[in-house]
Specification:
alpha/beta; 366 residues; globular; 40% helix; 14 strands; binds pyridoxal-5'-phosphate
Length: 366
Amino acid sequence: MEFINLKAQYAAYKDEIDGAVQRVCADAAFIMGGEVAELESSLAKYTGAAHAISCSSGTDALVLALMALGIRRGDEVITSPFTFIATAEAIALVGATTVFADISLSDCNIDAALIERAITPKTKAIMPVSLYGQCADMDTINAIAARHNLAVIEDGCQSFGALYRGKKSGNVSTIGTTSFFPSKPLGCYGDGGAIFTSDDELAARLAMLRNHGQSARYEHKVVGINGRLDAIQAAILNVKLRHFDAELSRRAELRMRYDRLLAKGGVTVVGEAAKSVTAQYSVRVKNRDRVAALLNAKGVPTAVHYPKPLHLQEAFATLGYTRGDFPLSEQAADEVLSLPFSPFLTEAEQDAVAHALDEAIKEAAC
Ligand SMILES: *Cc1c(COP(=O)(O)O)cnc(C)c1O
């Protein structure tokens, strides 16, 4: 059983993907070009944001968003400590300081009620993460940001396609970002990402920054980065985007089926089926490491997203946080377990996971 069945996905779209890649090779337009322009216009239409700017990864999408907003040394950005390292890494890379606020256990997203007390005169932005494919409480977060004149950057690296009160992830804040890392809901065959905004000025800055600050050939208005998406990845994404909504429907069916299979107890599912694209199907369970080892021994692959919250990472030791500072993030890090999931998971595999999990929980308790 695969944890995320990318091989089955490739087999399903093989002819289209092979054809798209071969066209790029034949055209020899490998950087930017028609495939990238087509993707950006499709992504904007899909999210409803006025602009989509493709880029080299989800991490660079976050860095570029911070750069476009002019966030730098001396500024503070508030985010969740229970996320992938890239969220806080991006803040550090522009020289700003990360300030963490704890999560709520129900969805493992930043708890909007804890944000306001983390705001100081140095705060410039709030960066909520849409963990496992579900947006945080964006209405409350946007209202706090408006009161304090802050930008909101959605780290939507796991949530492309998710709906928040009728709006698509990426289009629920000042700037939204996503990642096309292969295992994300919309993945390419390497690294890739995108930034979304409906602010024309920010969009123009983002497009310049991701291409060496270039406004016209060899005219560099600002210092930027090489953050472009390549044409082969764009061509693959153009194919996959056509199948994406069908995949989201299948994700929703399989998500609800897991929820039903696991309802008899022993685990708490993170988040809500109706709000999430289920980038990861994650549950909280006692004796997590033992349960995971037993599952692995029974042939069920698992993952932990994430075993150590960022405030306890050595890379952020200089921020001065210690164990106990964000108890719910620490509890989540000890309890979360991601089960095999993708639109290509079979129902037989799902039944086998549910059965093995039931046994593993009983065995781990004794
Ligand atoms: C994957 C991920 C990123 C980084 O995306 P890359 O494309 O791997 O650089 C950032 N934040 C979160 C929450 C992610 O899951």
